[in-house]
Amino acid sequence: MQLVEHFPVLIVGLSMFTAYTMLLVGFLDRRLPYYIALIMNSFFFILSLFILDYVLTVGPIRYWLGGWRPPWGIEYVVDAMNAYLLIIVISIIILGLIYSRSNVKHEIEERKHVTFYVLVQLMAAGLYGITVTGDLFNMFIWLEIASLTAYALIAVAGGRALRPAYNYVIMGSIGACLYIFGVCWLYAATGTLNMADMRLLLPLLYTDKVVQMGFAMIVVGVMIKAYIFPLHLWQPDCYTWAPSTISSMMASVHVKVMFYILIRLFFSVFTLNFIWQYIRFDILLCWLAAIAILAGSIWAIKQSNLKRMLAYSSISQMGYLLLGLGLSAFSYWGVVGLVAHILNHAVGKGCLFMSAGAFYQKEGLRQIKDCEGLGKRMPFSSAAFTIAAASLIGIPPTAGFASKLFLILASLDAAQYQFVVVLLLSGLLNLIYFWRVIDKIYFVKHEEATKREVERRGDGLPFSMLGPMLFLASLCIVLGFVWLSDLSTPLMNQILANLGVGGSL
Amino acid sequence: MESITPLLVILCPAIAAVLISISRNKPNIREVWTIAASIVMFALVLSMAPAVVNGAKISYTIFPTMFENINFGFRVDAFGLIFAITTSSLWILVSFYSIGYMRALNEHGQTRFFFFFCLAILGALGVALSSNLLTLFIFYEIITISTYPLIIHEQTPEALKAGHKYFAYLLTSGVFLLFAIMFTYYLTGTTDFIPGGIPALASATQIIAIIIFFCFLLGFLKSAWMPFHSWLPTAMIAPTPVSALLHAVAVVKAGVFGIVRIVCYIYGVDLMQELNLWLVLAIIAGFTMLVASFFAIAQDDLKKRLAYSIISQLSYIILGAAMVTQSGISAAMLYIPFHGYMKITLFLCAGAIMVASGKRRISEMAGLGKTMPVTMLAFSVGAIGMVGLPPVCGFISKLFLCFGAWELFSPYNWIFLAVILISSLLDVIYFFPIIHAAFFKEPIGEGGMSGSYKVKEAPRFMLIPLVITAAISIIFFIHPNTFYIYDLMKIAVGQLFGGV
What we know:
The complex is a heterodimer.
Chain A: H1 7-28, H2 32-57, E1 61-64, E2 75-78, H3 80-107, H4 113-132, H5 136-155, H6 162-190, H7 195-201, H8 209-225, H9 235-241, H10 244-269, H11 272-278, H12 282-302, H13 306-327, H14 332-363, H15 374-377, H16 379-393, H17 399-413, H18 417-443, H19 447-453, H20 463-484, H21 489-498
Antiparallel strand pairs in A: 1-2
Chain B: H1 5-22, H2 27-47, H3 49-53, E1 58-64, E2 71-76, H4 78-104, H5 110-129, H6 133-151, H7 157-188, H8 199-202, H9 206-219, H10 231-235, H11 240-274, H12 277-298, H13 302-322, H14 326-357, H15 368-371, H16 373-387, H17 394-407, H18 412-440, H19 460-478, H20 485-496
Helix pairs in contact in B: 1-2, 1-5, 2-4, 4-5, 4-11, 4-14, 4-19, 4-20, 5-6, 5-11, 6-7, 6-11, 7-9, 11-13, 11-14, 12-13, 12-18, 13-14, 13-18, 14-16, 14-17, 14-19, 14-20, 16-18, 16-19, 17-18
């Protein structure tokens, strides 16, 4: 057994261990937990790079916990899909941590700082766990850890964040219940909890109502967590009032990991064959996605609060992912679009929430109408906001343009032309709600703005906030070229092969 | 032929944009970057001409894309080079002009202005040199986005409204273009420009080919065909150099360039005739030519009148391409540089009049020929060229257009010939009164004491470029092969019609 094969479990285990260490160390000095989290997650990032390299060159990693063979023991499986996701999750967590350094001082009382970082690290552990596990019940445990910490992290802001956090607790618990019920039903039918094992046993039972019901329950449960329209009602308030760091982390990676559960369920527990032959779920999923895309955008246009607008935009963007998932039953381009958009949206939305947080921290503004003249006062944050917005609109040559291309090609390939129209229309709707803000930031004349310009040069923000923001913004452009070019073809082919989708680029 | 030159051409404005934003506090150095980039770029573009005239195609692939058979890169053919030469040569002149203009009016946000100007030029050159539709689309959208800050430069509510209108029209059209491009790729597996059209497209279902064609037409809405033209006159709220280079040359020509590309290099002459698409396109063009001219007559604001004149003249190019005859396509290709030079002369004059005398309305321009003789003389050259009279280059392109119409079969040849001639007459009606008033009428108001006019021209930075453009408009008539334009046209048409 090679050293690399221990890395997935090392990342998860060490994350938990780090979280508790941070709590203890926090009694000594309140500043230490931040540094520990940063160092450990950077270490995990390096490990995850090795994992990706190993997965691409050698093959999937299968790690049996305690040496117990599946289906009795818990198995951790890392193939190209989750190695890719793991890197995204870890890097966004690191960037979020760096960003939080100054932001947390502004938005959270000092006595809560230690618990805040402990909770962030625990949430990270949960997310890493979901990403690497190959066992449905183990996934539930990590899902609960990631969710419970998320409830707490939203409530940390206090005041107006408490009610939405409570809503989220209720909705999230219902989701978790549905998930575990579904897993129980599948267990009842197959007698195993291991994904790979289940995949082998299930085909004989595809017509079984218990299996189909179990599938439906898991899907609905996860959809609540991933706020797929119309199960999104808890989300806008949470993202609006949560600390900016948390909004950014949750919108960019937390929800992606939740969505990843669906991907695993579709491809690694069940097969596409089941989805489109036995329950005919694919086209329904596409329509659900289409409604989510349009409804999310239209609601976003109606918002006057900046972070709330971004929250609704996230609902719309989750529709893109769902559309990719639905279309993957017809065309492998759906998977390509899905995989690309996971990263593109994580980068773009993370950057947008970070800059919204920066606007709030420096200028105290939450409303879109107050953004006038911001381009002069906070040039860097505004630039980051604009580039990330351009990426989500899908203006070439940004990252969002590439994922839009893939999804359009998927719809064409599937001969589902109506979704091409949906995608293109949604681009225009995105343009409307983002450009409203960009217009205010740069182009609407504001007398006060010119006066205040003299007072300070630059944004007046520490580099720890600007750095992650600008890094993500530049990534929006770089990724646009990476996706367009054939650099990512090996990764994509590997993911397609691991997920059992026919076809290659 | 592989060569890195096309990439260098695109890099010129990109680097200039970066340098401009770096030296934003030193206006003199900032202006040097614009001028240096424009000159270097023109030299690079022109250096490709001899090879292309010999029939070579200069290609450079930046990277192969994830999509099979699509490379992100450039391939310079004769037609693309015509557009590139037009844009890059005019950029030099307009750089000088815009420096004079912006300083004379002491405008705000000059760094932003020059920065986005460079980006728009980058987009236009990218469109000219790109090797396939996907690359073209990316640059085409760059033009759209980067023009927005230039249009709303005044930042008044009125300007913002114009900008929103511009976006509403052009980004919606971009959606149609993307749809058409992806559908073409899905059907044929390629988006390359092939002289004579993509063969696989001919075997597609007829109705689908027609639908895609209309999506392409809507997609290239920058060509401002009626009834989707109203963004162009509204966008004239931009500073005059923007109206001049971008709205007379780069932006709108990118639109007609796209249409000619679609007609000749995606659909091809045969398919256009088989599906009767040429007739649809020709009717749209003919309609636009006439109606826009009537609109132009009704305008009193000089820039608005010029805007409608652009709409009308762009349809000459579309008509030329639509006729899919040899002379017609020759006319379309020649019109791109010729119209560019003539129209820019008119715009530069309009800007010069505004700076020197503050006049925007045509009714106020009586007697202007006495205070601004050079400007008005240049204006007359442009106007004569627009009408299509010698000794200005508009005559040559219009002659080709008439030949093109004549090559059609009866009765269409008579109809379109009549349309062209009526439209020329309308050109006379809306241009010549301006010249007449300027030279032969007494000025109204304070300048009333006859015989003692003070010559008050615009600053030299502005005057010299417009004199040069007027002069080149005449030189094109005497020597159409200036900047290899005529040879390039012959090569391009030869490739389309199989070695003539």
